[in-house]
Amino acid sequence: MRASAQRASEPRIALVAATTAFTLVILGTTVVNVALPSIRAEFGSSVAGLQWVINGYTLMLASLLLSMGAMCDKRGARPVMLGGVTVFVLGALVSLAAPSLAVLLTGQVLLGTGAAALLPASLALLSDAYPDDRRRARAIAIFASASAVAIGLGPVLGGLLIDSLGWRAIFGLDVPLAVIIGLLVAAHRPRAAPTLAKGLDGFGQVTAILSLGALTFAVIQSGSSGWLAAPVLGPLAVAVGAAFAFVAIERAGREPMLPLSIFASRAFNCSSVSGLLINFGVYGQFFVLSLYLQELRGLSPLQVGVVFLVQPGTAALTSLAAGAITVRRGPRIPAVTGGALATAGTLAIAGIDAHTPLAQIVGGLALLGAGGGLTIPALTTAIVSASARRRVGVAAATFTASRQIGGILGVAVLGALVGQPVGLPGLHTAVLVAAGVLAAAALLGLLVAPDGPGAEADTMTVIEAVAASEG
User: Fold this and answer.
1) DSSP helix/strand/coil, 443
2) I need a surface site. Which of 5, 208, 311, 412 has the fewest CB within 10 A?
């Protein structure tokens, strides 16, 4: 009887571990935004330094995602997840005790590295724990819902911790959660052995990180040096050279981390770029609005978290409608409508000043969230429908990485435009740029309908891909 009960508990252990890990990864992308002015006050940081605090995490998450997925195939989800937990705890401890901004950035890089392992390993852990399609569908639905909860509660929880205990407390929270995840994963016994079928594309991984890191550095540096300065042109050249090297390596490799054949579909390409642009507008605006609300309006971190809560709230509501519309009418209508709503929400706050009613800002964020909630599920479905079944996993991971890259560039570009100290002219320019980018995402939505005979994805495949893309 005891052995039977223990076997029955295994899937639930995996579900709790995976959902908690997913929540932890998403919190890492949201909770730090409300801490930026407090970090700046302690370390005397520039806006560029704050940009790196955000992008250090996201850069590693975006760059390592595909390789960590391959590592799950090669080694199994359990050891990858335990390794991710270990690195995540180390990053949290470094950030918690950071005596300088440089050390804090090191901690963020470690946290992003751990998160890149946790995200694909969590989904792989669930797939192993629930071999039955119906039970797995229910488990992954719970897993995916953790994203909405984490996005919504992250800024509020972060604000509460910062107001009560200071900004370091947001990293202190990571440690016990990560330890709990590690204990749960250690108690889980995998059903299936890893396939050992796929190697790791080390050279491709190095060039990917180099290209994205150099590009991020150049864009951030442009805010203080200008686009024609040597500290900008040099990294831009490195970024372009590394990008060409990455393409050459992926084309020639027998086991590339990113098979270039997936880019043969117009729908896939347009969906990926549209997802990148959506995250550019959303993440970039969260960065500059957090500075505006605290430094120019005098709101506390908790109050900022409450203001930001409306965006994931409306996103959660419209994402439900997006699924129904996509099933009946295809991805084009929700993708275009969502991009248009996000653009309208951004334009609603384009001219804000020190006396703009908070209701106007909340209304703009509500439209921004509604637009994102419509767009991302539709784009994910388009990605899945445009990909052969054997490529759905890498397609979903590529879409997730493209969205993270969009967030990196949004923080870098809009942060460079907002200036130092934060001023209204720079803020207005940044928000207008975000509106233009979101409008471009809406136009790309016209081209996301599948354009080829890609494999029909069953409901289970779509659910898994949506869950993966929510990171």
Assistant:
1) helix
2) 5
